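Fresh eyes needed here. I'd like your take on this protein's tokenised backbone:
***
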Amino acid sequence: MGPPGAGKGTQAQFIASHLSIPKISTGDIFRANVSGGTELGRQAKEYMDRGDLVPDEVTIAMVRDRLGEDDARDGFLLDGFPRNVPQAETLKKILAEWDTRLDIVLELVVDEDEVVRRLSGRRTCDKCGRIWHVDFDDKQDDICDDCGGRLFQRDDDKEEVVMHRLEVYRHDTSPLVQFYADEGILVGIDATGPVEEVTKRALTALRPLEN
């Protein structure tokens, strides 16, 4: 867990690969159910087509189904779920039914100024979709070096939108920090610096679980 722009998806991919367990994200689950035409997918699509948030009960049902698949029997990594305390409480009950629990919750810690800099500085190619950064990439123009496409700033990367996303995170998701701290399984990871360094910190935190 962590705020927008903390690098959750990137780190989740590396960690899941290192541990040879599936990375389970709500985004992937939504897409799989919608494209597969499942009943839960149809329900979710109705909300998404209206621009509404998918209700907790639909999200949780999808996650429960995914956790029940064969590849998750020996472990899994959750990315993007739970997003609030009620979801966390329900997840705890589901796992208890299967006589299992979460081993650890990694919180990627990064200050809000850094989040704003990371997200508001991103530029996306309108042809190939590659993301560049005005601070981190050595670029002097608004042209993609890969395909020659035009670089633009996505609406959700604009500073005022990023600030709103952080506000939503503080309100809805940050209480999970205290929830999992009370559970005794929260570990904070400094998420600043090169991606490889953050990955090393995360794997160091996970090392006791591999013994």
The first strand starts at residue 23 and ends at 25. The two ends are 24 Å apart (CA to CA). The first helix runs from residue 8 to 19. The chain is about 50% helix and 10% strand.
